[in-house]
Amino acid sequence: MQGTISISFTENYKLILNIKVGVDMKTDGKKLGKQTVKLENPPKIISAYSIVGPKEGDGPLRECFDQILNDDTCGKDSFEKAESEMMFTAITEALSRAKLKETDIDYLFAGDLLNQIISSSFAAREFSIPFFGLYGACSTMSESLSLASIIMDAGCAKYVVAATSSHFSSAERQFRFPLEYGSQRCGTCQWTVTGSGAMVLGHEGNFPEVTYITTGKVKDYGQKDPNNMGAAMVPAAVDTLVSHFKDTGRKPSDYDIIATGDLGKVGKELADKLIQEYGYDIRANHMDCGEAIFNGQLQKTDAGGSGCGCSAVVFTGYLYKKLMRKEIKSVLLVSTGALMSPTSSLQGETIPGIAHAVAIEMK
Amino acid sequence: MQGTISISFTENYKLILNIKVGVDMKTDGKKLGKQTVKLENPPKIISAYSIVGPKEGDGPLRECFDQILNDDTCGKDSFEKAESEMMFTAITEALSRAKLKETDIDYLFAGDLLNQIISSSFAAREFSIPFFGLYGACSTMSESLSLASIIMDAGCAKYVVAATSSHFSSAERQFRFPLEYGSQRCGTCQWTVTGSGAMVLGHEGNFPEVTYITTGKVKDYGQKDPNNMGAAMVPAAVDTLVSHFKDTGRKPSDYDIIATGDLGKVGKELADKLIQEYGYDIRANHMDCGEAIFNGQLQKTDAGGSGCGCSAVVFTGYLYKKLMRKEIKSVLLVSTGALMSPTSSLQGETIPGIAHAVAIEMK
Fold first, then answer.
1. Does position B1 have pLDDT exceeding 50, yes or no?
2. d(CA A210, CA A143)
3. Counting CB atoms within 10 angstroms of each CB, which of A48, A168, B189, B204 has the fewest?
């Protein structure tokens, strides 16, 4: 153990005396418990932008999105190029809202569902920003925000962009069947969101701050049905939430909203039930982005929305604005991912899940 | 600007006076130039492990690898499962060498070439370690090492694992053709390495340290030929190298070895030529892991090895040992990736590249 007395002076030569006793900050001073980090200099989400397809723009959150496409091909000749174009737009507009140029940005963290994350890579190609490519399936929004926040808090950057995307048509073709096949869907199926969300993190100003990050472990309870991803992801969501509460000493009611990514209607009910076995009740303030983004019955989206873009656009379009308007003070964003591929499923593997939790608070 | 005078005392009440004046560490105090970070508390690579397939074990570096498989299926019923098993082994053995248990590890950073990075995800499933999934194509080893080092330096972790893998057969099937097809290869083709490398980072002991990280931007000079990935990645490798030298003020000769990931024979020559246009000559100490791992003529591997596993096993098996034995003092590891997918190529896209540089030095 070490003790430190530090005396700082600002530009105005005002003396600040800090006495800190505890674990050597050099090793893991920010770590709480096994999975959580408390940020010392919480980065602020200084801007956010959401762009969605027509179906999302027809749903319950239609008033919240920054841009609703009429044409989900974005004028491109493939769905993959359209998805990349959406991400490019989300990043460009988020920069514009932050009144920043790409040369001001230290890092870009992005990922998506496509093989070799081509949506992100080709969007990143259009920016002269050092780029870290990520893959967390539908957990990518909070994975991206986690790493972006850590690198900011570490003193490595002034501004960082975190982004992700998904597209119904590119995802259907890759994970399931071409649209023309007209395959049948079942009640537990989810509808991949066509959308991209991007956020710019900075150090200054009165904006929502990222305060805690709980990084998920891969959890697998043996679910095999790729038509029921919600259930596959529940163990991971619950594990991360329980770890978050234990590590921070917080309770569910400390957050205005606990927003899981895309458990969907089915997964949300399962999660609410399972977490009670660990002594936590989240029913009062648990919303699931997948359940919220569509009107399941009217829009025939079965269990709800899914995809990286789901929690991305619901956070950047809806929750971020609520925080900025001070309608709510705190959100625990828990994007959830199913870590399978068509190959792994065809080879008889089960579907592991992962969930990353990020606490975002308006001071 | 801020100034800080800090007075610390250790357990023996020894006084340490530290005076630091400079940019407010809260924003980007570690940043050098546009793309480089100088780590304040350089994490140490306290163990490393390399596992390779039979062909790699027959090559020029055969004496260096920690484990050479007789059977590249690892007894599994698919190449994808075999690849994941290799990564599981690499991580397990690296932990064992560091005399650590999985419960000691704060984070696992890993990625691979497979769709939805299933090699990494299914390996991560076997460990109870918070997991960040990455995708950087063949640049993943240095991308993983970069983020692992940053999170260590940030005070978020005591121990972190960085790993990656590739497998000739899983890559051929996914990116090109099934093996049974017997497709023809050309002189610029590269041979995906069957191998996995893992490293454990810690804070203590006399081990090679990660000192600087230069994060790459996506660079695309219009190369379209997926049979010549080396050439596609050259612009990114050169761009990152030049940025590294400019940001740090270092010269190529400051490193004993500059190790690019997998430009291969063709790409290496191009890179040596292109970087001279920027005023740097790296020919004296530039090795390419892809060129080094196979005997191109004898083993019929055309331009050389490729894949995430290439720079991973050449670093963990060969370069790390040279650093530990103090035969060399410094390595600049520059893993290089081609950010395409079969889909993007078939849609007529060019092949963007990316390269991340990590300086590793033995004090």
1. no
2. 13
3. B204
d(CA A267, CA A288): 9
Amino acid at A347: Q
Same fold? A3-38+207-361, A44-202: yes
Phi, psi torsion values for A165, nearest 5 degrees: -155, 165
pLDDT at B180: 86
In this prediction, residue B23 carries a pLDDT of 39
pLDDT over threshold 90, residue A19: no
Higher pLDDT, B12 or A321: A321
Query: Which residues does B157 contact at the CB level (< 8 Å), separation at least 6?
Result: A27, A28, A31, B106, B107, B151
What is the C-alpha separation between B223 and B303, in angstroms, rounded?
17
- Residue pair B161/B95 in contact (Cβ under 8 Å)? The answer is yes
Cα B67 from Cα A94, distance rounded (Å): 48
Rg, chain A, Cα only: 20
Q: Length of chain B in residues, anyone?
A: 363
- Are A347 and B119 in contact by the 8 Å Cβ rule? The answer is no
Mutation target among A83, A132, A244, A358 for the B interface, most CBs of B within 10 A: A132
Only one residue has tokens 């033995």, namely: B362
Q: Longest Cα pair distance anywhere in chain B, in angstroms? A: 71
- pLDDT per residue over A223-248, tens digit each? 999 888 889 999 999 999 999 999 99
Tracing tokens 């419960």 back to the chain, one arrives at: B103
Residue type, A135: Y
Give A158's contacts in chain B (Cβ within 8 Å). Answer: 27-28, 31
pLDDT in tens, B177-196: 888 888 888 888 899 999 99
Is the dihedral angle over the CA atoms A304, A307, A311, A312 positive or is it negative? negative
The answer for residues whose C-beta is within 8 angstroms of residue B276's C-beta and 6 or more apart is none
Give Cα separations from A310 to A55, A124, A222, B42 (angstroms).
Answer: 12, 20, 25, 38
| Dist. CA B250–CA B180, nearest whole Å | 49
Residue bearing the bigger pLDDT, A244 or A183: A244
Cβ distance of B124 and A218 shorter than 8 Å: yes
ipTM of the complex: 0.93
Q: What single-letter amino acid sits at A83?
A: E
Q: Where are the domains of chain A?
A: 3-38+207-361, 44-202
Give B24's pLDDT tier (boundaries 50, 70, 90). very low
Q: Are A84 and A118 in contact (CB under 8 A)?
A: yes
Quote the pTM value.
0.93
Q: How far is CA B171 from CA B166, B168, B195, B293, in A?
A: 7, 5, 12, 17
The answer to whether A158 contacts B6, with C-beta atoms less than 8 Å apart, is no
Q: Choose the closest CB to B216 out of A130, A154, A352.
A: A130
Report how far residue A294's alpha carbon sits from residue A195's, in angstroms, rounded to the nearest whole number.
13
Please report the DSSP string for B95-151 in residue order.
HHHTT--GGG--EEEEEESSGGGHHHHHHHHTS-S-EEEE--GGGHHHHHHHHHHHH
Dihedral, CA atoms, A294, A300, A302, A303, nearest 10 degrees? 0
pLDDT tens-digit map of B259-300 = 999 999 999 999 999 999 999 999 999 999 999 999 998 999
Superfamily of domain B44-202: Stage V sporulation protein AD (3.40.47.40)
Q: Decide which of 3.40.47.40, 3.30.1330.60, 3.40.1390.10, 2.60.40.10 is the CATH code for A3-38+207-361.
A: 3.40.47.40
State which residue of chain A sits closest to B215, comparing Cα positions: A130
Reply yes or no on whether the pLDDT at B140 is more than 60.
yes
Determine the residue among A81, A164, A218, A349 to mutate to test chain B binding: the one whose Cβ has the most chain B Cβ atoms within 10 Å.
A218
